[in-house]
Here is the input.
Amino acid sequence: MMTIKLPGATLLSILLTFVFALSSVLPEIASASPMPTAAKVSKASRKVSRKKRSRRSKCSPAARAAGKRQAIDLIRTQSPELCRLTGIKMASGDSIINTTEILNSDGELSDATAGAELPYEEGEIIAELEQEDDVTPDLEAFRTLWLSMIDEKDGGAATQGILPKQKLADVVMEWLGTRYHFGGMARTGIDCSAFTQMLFASSMNVTLPRTSVAQATLGKSVGRRSELQFGDLVFFRTRSRRGISHVGMYLGDNLFAHSSSRYGVTISSLESTYYSKRLVAARRIGEEDIARLAGSAQTSNVN
Here is the structure.
């Protein structure tokens, strides 16, 4: 009996073997392919996270505690009036507080690039995110020191024009040490214009504009530093670009309260090298402004 060889049989067996091998390899390739994609997504998310964090000032707990100490030292050595309003005892003549060092070193953190793409230019130039500070200040000890300096508040003017002077001073002291946060408007973090906005809202129930540039359009101009009064808004150019970018509230004796990118809410002096060079304007909020702003706030609430 003759055996017939079919050439196609060998070809068919080869094809079947190839298909079987391919079907075994494909699931392994499919299961391995998502990994690079996930890694890329994770890497991209880390970049976005770092970029987002770099827009904020770290303003560490140690820095905020230093800002509190600076505020109290300046009050104790520079302003008998603020001592009366805040209940802090005036420093004795033999005080070892080095106010010269404060005036020379105080200022905002600077970075020419951070924050450049934010929706509005507000506040100081934000420093790039630094490594986490591992120094934890003894805040309870600081609180004890603060309470030891409190004395009975005596009489005296509680207002400056129409501004409730005592109430504004109380709010400033209450917020000392609050963290600086660009765009922040809360106890967890607040920027410079939100701080001045909060001061007026808390003491007079009026709403100032949100940005320092807009706040600089209110009231009337104060032409000379010697003419400044408690409650006047003082404006600074703290960015490399021209224009107003920082605001605080004047307290008297060349001192002003503000939310600083370096220390958080603190008190600084207009005599410091940094702020003296960068002070560009001052505005006084008058009775008509208060009435108009109060009316706008009520209308906004109704709507």
